[in-house]
From TrEMBL:
GO terms for molecular function: metallocarboxypeptidase activity; zinc ion binding. It comes from Sparus aurata (Gilthead sea bream). Keywords: Carboxypeptidase, Cytoplasm, Hydrolase, Metal-binding, Metalloprotease, Nucleus, Protease, Zinc. Pfam families: Pepdidase_M14_N, Peptidase_M14, TPR_CCP1_N. This is Cytosolic carboxypeptidase 1. Belongs to the peptidase M14 family. One of its GO terms (cellular component) is cytosol. Residues 735-1024 form the Peptidase M14 domain.
């Protein structure tokens, strides 16, 4: 430490002695004898206090200046530690007292004021009570008055501004500053750009003034608006933007924008910004900045301000409630559904004009993935009640009530011969053969697309498939789609309406278009759908090529946002024409002159409520809410026709609700082309460019947002081109899998049953919508009718699986499809699995939600996976009866070995599991627990660990075994806690793709999902071996054959496809000859 030379201090002064002592201590000595240095410093502070009590004269001022200079030198080094010691010794208060005393002199010593404020600016950030002390001692007003008197004194003005910046961090001080005219004062200090603006001090002063305006309270923001300073800030920013051509003063330009951002946090500020033409000014300046990458900071801040100030609009629908109405048999006494039924008409969607406007999202061009809904669980959501954390088997209902469920467990209780007869009986009376509807079912025909003349859909025909075997379907039948009463003209030749359907029976052994139509006839929907979508009719063959995650183009989100802002700046360029509207049930397809696309979603699992043409090739799309709900917008499935080949179309789904999406991180939408399908390539493919997901200007009603005000919807936008003229294309959130598809698959599986397979299909219950809920039992038939074999047959451990409780998570059904096909297969692995376990499977827990295009709820308007604690038999029949099955097993002392509920995850990649663990939950919380409380079998980790070793899509690192309060009514937690299943899981499959393993960098497809379902089965074999349930020596290495088995299946499918292509080429050659 270098001690400055002391001047003008009396020779007999004690201060001189102490300063001399410090001067004699060189740097090394001070490091060795820290305590002595502290003592000397403390004595100096004491003398300063004494000095403050004396009458100040010129000699005292000089002495004080010397001491302050020494203190400043001491505090400059030490990385803040010395400042902390200074504050703890009361140094801040001493400086404030000196400041008050100095202010009483007239005129006050400028040099002393400069030194005091420089020290205060250095000390303030380390003193938590700095603002309070400044206000109570009166130092705050001293600094303000000093600034007012020295607006042209840059040397003194700068430290005063720096101290005021620290003062204003205290909210009360910030308000006090506003009352004392500091807001107006700052606008006198902030200077416009001039050619002579080269003074670095002036530059720093302007920056400090802007930083003082940045932490703008609501009161000060109002003062700024009332003073007309929004216009001033915009003019200053425009001035700096035009003149700072070399971008040397970025911080000043940013400071101006930050001040605007804070003022526009209040409604009054946003209004003033709009009235001052702020949208146009920031839009134009930002557009000019776009080519310069280094100006992104300014562009992003400008974008944030414009998005926040964009006037909030309500969705272009009459009500945010679903377009479909289903009257419940009884309405719950409380909850969102009760609130929905009790609302007066017209009050469900109110644009919130309060000042509780949530901060608009910044431009997320460089964002990382935000998995905040499950990653890093909030401590306040973790279960801390140890009584709830210890599983306790609680059947809930007496055995007498549960005996009715004996009929679903014939293999456990009845004589085998009777059970065998029951198999045949149930197979003929299963829920698949449900009562067929008398309404006509419109089957896809060649009359497909809308033409300019009429609204009948038309595909150019005949559409020949070369040599690929095909079947003729239809004739001159009814049109596919709503024609609003017009009678479509049949093709002159009559045969023109014949649709050539590719025969994909070898590639899709579980798909049959004719059988699918039969299943549709027995499916009941709220809108009484009578149409069949092409993809569900033709089927889907997984593509053989890889579909990598889409690489995000830099600036794409910003570009989309600016195009949205152009709607406000150039309103005359916007068409705003509705072309499809489910709220007009008699005629949802609105007639036009053929310049617009045509949309349709009136088929099973379809979801699109409204389509609005905003520009010639741009459409805003509104999704339908779940039935008996006013939110849950995520799943979409709709048809588009009337497109132009090669034209880039933009689609904006404008009422998404989640704050982030995998669409920002490589996920694409799915498209199905009918022209491709009838050409022998029936498949969903990932498509879409310039995909992004961001907050928009459509306001969410607080009624739909759980009481939260100021919420906005999010847009998911993508662009695409079409390759075929007169095509019919479908877009979907994920690979569709309808209820009728499930029934068709189950029927085909049943037809494939061999005598060695025990397969029974039961109708567990009837849903609210009148649809059956299938329950499957799969195991191996006993080797013989001997008592030993029958006993072994009955005593096999149970595995309980379920899926599709959330309709929008269609990937869960594809995983379940893989599980079912594997269980019904003929491989040694499948045989061993059936011989080792009895499988009870509910493949679709929410048929009504699936049928009606819901994303999360059933017809009751409730999330069924939050009803497991106390399900209502009338409102939640599938959950009530599934839980009853498990309760019956508890009474029978046949608790399942594994329970797994298949789900899909919209914000994470890979496949992973959620389980339940007392120990891991306690570790994640702050509760104390004894060693006895933490005793737990770690077997719950075995199955996920096995999957991580054999399934390339599975990620052990994404698994969690923490029990949360918010999930206490889910299947996983209730089955673990009440039924006593230690291995109770939710298996989540990504809707996007993988970031590890074999599939890293690829989007997930149906092949990978079905493979995951098969690998789950294989993991059960290894679990069986590891848990020692049976000593089957022949199972020791069977699970290692899974990859070989999968490769063989793929090779067979590929050879079949090659054979088809060879046949087609031969046929084409013959035709040419």
């Amino acid at each position: 430490v270098i001690i400055p030379k002391i001047v003008n201090v009396p020779s007999n002064s004690r201060v001189l002695m102490l300063l001399g002592q410090l001067e004699r201590m060189n740097g090394e000595a001070m490091l060795k004898d820290v305590e002595t240095a502290r003592q000397v410093t403390a004595k100096i502070l004491h003398l300063i206090q004494t000095q403050g009590k004396r009458k100040h004269n010129s000699r005292d001022v000089q002495t004080t200046l010397n001491i302050l200079c020494i203190v400043s030198e001491l505090l400059t080094v030490g990385r803040g530690r010395r400042v902390g010691v200074f504050v703890s010794k009361g140094g801040t208060g001493v400086l404030f007292q000196l400041l008050i005393n100095a202010s009483k002199e007239f005129p006050p010593s400028e040099e002393l004021m400069l030194q005091l404020h420089s020290l205060l600016a250095k000390v303030g950030p380390k003193d938590r009570k700095f603002g309070v002390k400044a206000r109570l001692t009166g130092a705050l007003n001293v600094t303000i008055n000093l600034m007012k008197q020295n607006l042209l004194n840059n040397k003194l003005l700068l430290p005063c501004l720096q101290v005021l910046r620290v003062y204003s961090s205290n909210l009360v001080n910030a308000v006090s500053l506003g009352k004392n005219g500091v807001v107006e004062l700052m606008f006198k200090i902030v200077a416009p750009y001039t050619v002579d603006f080269v003074n670095e001090v002036q530059n720093v002063i302007t920056l400090s003034s802007l930083s003082l305006l940045s932490p703008c309270t609501e009161t000060n923001a109002r003062r700024a608006v009332d003073g007309g300073f929004v216009t001033v800030l915009l003019a200053l920013y425009l001035d700096w933007h035009r003149n700072d051509t070399r971008h040397r003063h970025m911080l000043i330009r940013k400071g101006l924008l930050v001040s605007l951002r804070n003022i526009t946090n209040i409604k009054l500020g946003r209004k003033a910004f709009i009235e001052a033409d702020g949208m146009r000014i920031l839009y134009n300046t930002s557009t000019e900045c776009l080519p310069v990458r280094t100006l992104d900071l300014l562009i992003n801040t400008s974008s944030l301000i414009m998005r926040k100030c964009f006037p909030k609009n309500r969705l272009p629908v009459p009500t945010i409630k679903s377009a479909f109405h289903f009257q419940l048999p009884n309405v719950p006494a409380a909850g969102p559904v009760a609130q929905l039924y009790n609302q007066p008409p017209g009050v469900d969607d109110v644009v919130d004009e309060s000042d509780d406007n949530e901060e608009a999202d910044a431009d997320t061009e460089n964002d990382t993935e935000n998995d905040d809904d499950d990653k890093d669980l909030l401590n306040d959501d973790i279960e801390t009640d140890l009584n709830k954390l210890h599983p306790k088997r609680n059947p809930g209902r007496p055995l007498e009530e549960l005996r009715v469920y004996e009929r679903f467990f014939l293999e456990l209780s009845e004589d085998f011969q009777v059970a065998k007869m029951s198999i045949l009986t149930n197979r003929n009376s299963s829920c698949i053969a449900s009562t067929q509807s008398s309404r006509p079912i419109i089957v896809p025909t060649a009359q497909a697309l809308s033409s300019p003349v009429n609204s009948t859909r038309h595909i150019q025909s005949p559409l020949l498939l070369g040599g690929i075997a095909s079947r003729r379907v239809g004739g001159g039948g009814s049109n596919f789609g709503s024609d609003c009463g017009s009678e479509g003209t049949e093709d002159e030749g009559g045969e023109g309406a014949v649709l050539e359907v590719p025969d994909t029976a070898l590639l899709l052994p579980l798909h049959d278009p004719d059988l699918y139509v039969e299943m549709v006839k027995g499916t009941r929907s709220v809108p009484e759908y009578a149409e069949v979508a092409y993809p569900d009719y033709f089927g889907h063959v997984a593509p053989t090529f890889k579909e990598p995650l889409l690489e995000r183009v830099y600036g794409v989100q910003r570009s989309k946002i600016y195009q949205d802002i152009e709607r406000l700046i150039h309103p005359n360029d916007i068409l705003d024409k509705a072309v499809y509207d489910l709220d007009i049930p008699s005629c949802p397809v609105i007639e036009d002159n053929g310049e617009s696309l045509k949309f349709n979603s009136q088929f099973e699992s379809g979801n699109l409520r409204k389509a609005v043409q905003v520009r010639k090739y741009e459409y805003d799309l509104v999704l339908n809410s779940d039935v008996n709900s006013n939110h849950y917008h995520q799943w979409f499935y709709f048809e588009v026709s009337g497109m132009r080949v090669g034209t880039v179309y933009r689609f904006n789904i404008i009422n998404c609700e989640k704050s982030n999406s995998q669409f920002n991180y490589g996920m694409q939408v799915l498209m199905y082309s009918v022209q491709e399908a009838i050409s022998g390539r029936p498949r969903w493919v990932r498509t879409g460019a310039d995909i992004c997901y961001y907050k928009n200007h459509f306001a969410r009603s607080s009624i739909a947002a759980g009481g939260q005000k100021g919420k906005s919807y999010y847009s998911m936008t993508f662009s695409t081109t079409f390759s075929h003229k007169d095509d019919v294309c479908y877009f979907a959130y994920h690979y569709p899998y309808t209820y009728s598809t499930l029934k068709m698959h189950l029927a085909k599986l049943e037809a494939l049953r061999t005598p060695q397979i025990y397969l029974r299909q039961d109708n567990l219950c009837e849903t609210l919508g009148g649809n059956g809920c299938p329950l499957l039992t799969i195991t191996a038939m006993p080797e013989s009718n001997s008592n030993d074999h029958i006993c072994q047959f009955r005593n096999r451990p149970l595995i309980f699986l379920s899926a599709r409780v959330h309709p929008g998570e269609t990937n869960a059904s594809w995983v379940m499809k893989g599980t079912l096909e594997f269980l019904m297969g003929t491989s040694p692995l499948a045989v061993s699995l059936r011989e080792g376990f009895i499988f009870k499977i509910v493949p679709m827990l929410n048929p009504d939600g699936v049928i009606n295009g819901n994303h999360r709820c059933s017809l009751s308007g409730e999330d069924l996976n939050r009803q497991w604690l106390n399900p209502n038999p009338e409102l939640h029949p599938t959950i009530y009866h599934t839980k009853s099955l498990l309760q019956y097993l508890v009474h029978m002392q046949r608790t399942p070995l594994v329970f797994c509920d298949y789900h899909g995850h919209s914000r994470k990649k890979n496949v992973f599991m959620y389980g339940c663990s007392v120990k891991e939950t306690v570790w994640q919380s702050n509760i104390t627990a004894s060693s006895s409380d933490l005793q737990e079998d770690l077997g719950y980790r075995t199955l996920p660990k096995i999957l991580s070793q054999i399934a390339p899509a599975f990620s052990m690192g994404s698994c969690s075994f923490v029990v949360e309060r918010s999930k206490e009514s889910t299947a996983r937690v209730v089955v673990w806690r009440e039924i006593g299943v230690q291995r109770s899981y939710t298996m989540e499959s990504t809707l996007c793709g993988c970031d590890q393993g074999k599939y890293k960098g690829l989007q997930i497809g149906t092949r990978e999902l079905e493979e995951m379902g098969a690998q789950f089965c294989v993991s059960l074999l290894r679990l069986k071996r590891l848990t020692g349930l049976r000593n089957h020596q022949h199972l020791l290495d069977l699970e290692n054959d899974i990859m070989t088995h999968t490769k063989v299946v793929r090779l067979v499918k590929w050879r079949i496809l090659q054979s088809h292509l060879h046949t087609q080429l031969m046929h084409e050659g013959t035709h040419m000859l």
